[in-house]
């Protein structure tokens, strides 16, 4: 559990003159990584170096950037990483073979297959072939099921990051109404499950939702995971809502219209510098845990 | 997909003078079992007899009744069943061994471990050890994950029954607000996931929900899965709501206060004769599918 500076950021939920808090992902991330660095050092004393293997298929430039960022983040806290870059025309079978190799490699503690893979590859089959013990990115159906049923070790990293921010800032969840906008397998669905397990009343909205504004106007906690820039407007929110923006659109823009939502919210994540940096930290954290448990 | 008599039961959702429909589980169940009987006959022509293995541990009388009912239901449509009754003092290891035997028995297509098992047994470990191919009761975390991610073959049977009733009566779901009261791993959580996958906006409520009445008053579809007799009152519902009562409490009483909810609802399942009989039919259906796919 991350600690430090907490009292400065306590949100006085009950009071009417709600304190305005910017939920600083870099701060949360720094605290996580400082803790992880110590744990990595301890593991190294036992001759174990936590190692994340990333697999990139094809030449998507943003994917290349993401994978590079993850590798660099590993290095900064003393972890190892293996970057596997497969050509665009890799077949599903070849990818499965590579994943299986990593499953069986005792030096590898976590495996991340960078989404999306080229269209001719069966991405779901590839995800499913990752060993549950190394599924630090929470992409397998078993990993998802364990998370939703309340005993998962490695939830998908962005949902895990959102929960970590909520814990760091001691935002109360139990009995609160959380509204998640989005239902993707790596974001909207698992974050809904995690909020529910922490006793929020959870509503999951999506493209077919007909009364989004009315539902959002009741939300104590809003998670935006819809993939549309500046989509959620401050006018739609309840005064004092906590807003977590998991969107990351072109031009460093989130799913939330920041300025108008800032006015209404009691606490809000910026983009960039909100959920993003914590997401990578959760990937590191899951890999360190996997190494500790191996 | 079940068909038959549908036009008689179409609900005129838009009109103010909503037709009142009692969602007759026995009728839905009959249609499913007639279809299954034909499929069992076809399988038998290929020398395959669908077979459900049930495992009961200990001497809980209601569990004994449930297991017997399931076995009898198999026989009525020409399926086989194997009833395994283990003593109260069975260890987790002994139970796992038995499950593994059934996993490897090619004559067994579905395995049901009757919940609850005695407290000294690790029930979750036992559930997890059921082969995903034979998990016709949807209890494994992988089965749950596959269901929630939209490609599960065998959702838990009560949630599957609720969806089957909705389909049989052609109740529109897309864009509707479904409120599920309860979040158990075999009922509230998976039915929330199934409704979400069918494009409902889904709110999951539970014991920590602080404003249940206000949320229920907005629900187009209500699923009661809370395990408290006559808990949900008609006063809480929106006029014309569809009410699905998955509760089954002592004295044949559901979770829904039937008389008051009947007044408000456009459609409602009775207890008994609602979700219950369809649940057993879904167990049979999943086992037949497992046999067809083996």
Brief summary of the model shown:
The structure is a homodimer of 294-residue chains. Chain A has 294 residues and is of the alpha/beta class.
Give a structural overview.
The structure is a homodimer of 294-residue chains. Chain A has 11 helices and 9 strands. With 294 residues, chain A is α/β, with parallel strands linked by helices. Chain A has 2 domains: 47-137, Leucine Dehydrogenase, chain A, domain 1 (Rossmann fold), CATH 3.40.50.10860; 155-276, 3-Layer(aba) Sandwich (Rossmann fold), CATH 3.40.50. In chain A, the strands form 2 sheets. Chain A has a 6-stranded parallel β-sheet, sandwiched between helices. In chain A, strand 5 (177-181), helix 8 and strand 6 form a beta-alpha-beta unit. The first copy, chain A, is globular and about 50 Å long. The first copy, chain A, starts with 5 loop residues before the first helix and ends with a helix. At the A-B interface, helix 6, helix 8 and strand 6 of A face helix 6, helix 8 and strand 6 of B. Strand 6 (201-205) of chain A pairs antiparallel with strand 6 (201-205) of chain B, so a sheet runs across the interface.
């Amino acid at each position: 559990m991350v600690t430090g500076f907490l009292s400065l950021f306590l949100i006085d939920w009950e009071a009417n003159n709600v304190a305005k808090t910017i939920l600083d992902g870099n701060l949360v991330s720094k605290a996580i990584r400082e803790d992880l660095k110590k744990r990595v050092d301890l593991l190294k004393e036992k001759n174990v170096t936590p190692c994340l293997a990333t697999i990139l298929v094809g030449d998507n430039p943003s994917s290349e950037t993401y994978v590079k960022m993850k590798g660099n983040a590993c290095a900064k806290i003393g972890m190892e990483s293996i970057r596997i870059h497969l050509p665009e025309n890799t077949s599903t079978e070849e990818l499965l073979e590579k994943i299986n190799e990593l499953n069986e490699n005792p030096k590898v503690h976590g495996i991340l297959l960078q989404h999306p893979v080229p269209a001719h590859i069966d991405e779901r089959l590839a995800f499913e072939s990752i060993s549950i013990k190394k599924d630090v990115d929470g992409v397998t159906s078993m990993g998802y099921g364990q998370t939703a049923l309340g005993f998962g070790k490695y939830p998908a990293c962005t949902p895990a990051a959102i929960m970590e921010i909520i814990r760091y800032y001691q935002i109360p969840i139990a009995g609160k109404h959380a509204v998640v906008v989005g239902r993707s397998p790596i974001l909207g669905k698992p974050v809904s499950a995690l909020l529910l397990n922490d006793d929020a009343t959870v509503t999951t909205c999506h493209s077919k939702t007909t009364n989004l504004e009315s539902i959002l106007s009741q939300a104590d906690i809003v998670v935006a995971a819809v993939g549309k820039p500046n989509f959620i407007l401050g006018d739609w929110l309840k005064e004092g809502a906590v807003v977590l923006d998991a969107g990351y659109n072109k031009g460093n823009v989130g799913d939330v219209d920041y300025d108008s939502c800032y006015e209404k919210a009691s606490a809000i994540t910026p983009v960039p510098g909100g959920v993003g940096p914590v997401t990578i930290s959760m990937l590191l954290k899951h890999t360190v845990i996997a190494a500790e448990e191996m």
